[in-house]
Amino acid sequence: MSELFLVRHAQASFGAANYDQLSELGVRQAHWLGEYLLQRGIQFDRAIVGDMHRHHQTLDGICDGMQCDGSRRTVLSGLNEYNFVDLMQAFVAQMPDHPLIADLVADPVNKQKHFRLLRVALSAWGRDQIYDVAETWQCFSRRVRDAREQIQALAKSGEVVLAIGSGGSNSTFMGQVLNAPVESIFDLNLQSKNTGISRYFYNNRKINLTEFNAVPHLETTELAQYVTFG
């Protein structure tokens, strides 16, 4: 069997003009994870990333903390996130009178209100109730499945693999492994921690989840305050 460490990217730049870059804290989170892995003596035979900037930055930070060369990486766009801006805009256009929209308009930088509205929009997306989006839920889940199948096709016995994805893609990946309903996948998505690790054992025929959303590198008195979800 091979072992997969599937990691969500470190904290991105919520509220900035370009979300797809790590915040200053995100850079440190990735480095702390790398230091933890180095201390544990964990080494990776292969690195896989989505092709979003925050994915590559997270891998760079982990490799910096591990004091290893991460220049060789396989890029799988199936690990990319859905376009939550496109999704939210489509939801607002179709359901302009939803009360959560007014709440967010009144306080646009409130993360809690943003994620409440996103959860409702995701549910509508998963039920095919949002039409004017570039990527349907079926298309998104299909490309995540394609990425998982490509990872399994590359399986080599005893190999340890590090992969960096996003909250939505990683939770969908896990939901497919567990045959979880769509609503549960979205719940898992919004629980996903930055640099959270989900671990799998797999070969080219089967894959099993062994750990979900763990942040052992942040579970200290000093660093617990730096657990984030965005």
| CATH class division of the largest domain | Alpha Beta
What is the number of E strands? 6
| Contiguous helical run count | 8
Q: Describe the largest sheet.
A: 6 strands, mixed
What overall geometry do the principal axes of the alpha carbons give? globular
Walk me through the topology:
Layout: E1 2-8, H1 24-39, E2 46-49, H2 53-66, E3 74-75, H3 84-94, H4 99-106, H5 111-126, H6 137-153, E4 160-165, H7 167-178, H8 182-191, E5 197-202, E6 207-214
Helix pairs in contact: 1-2, 3-5, 4-5, 5-8, 6-7, 7-8
Concise summary:
This protein is α/β, with parallel strands linked by helices and 230 residues long. The chain has helices spanning 24-39, 53-66, 84-94, 99-106, 111-126, 137-153, 167-178, 182-191, and strands at 2-8, 46-49, 74-75, 160-165, 197-202, 207-214. 45% of the residues lie in helices and 14% in strands.
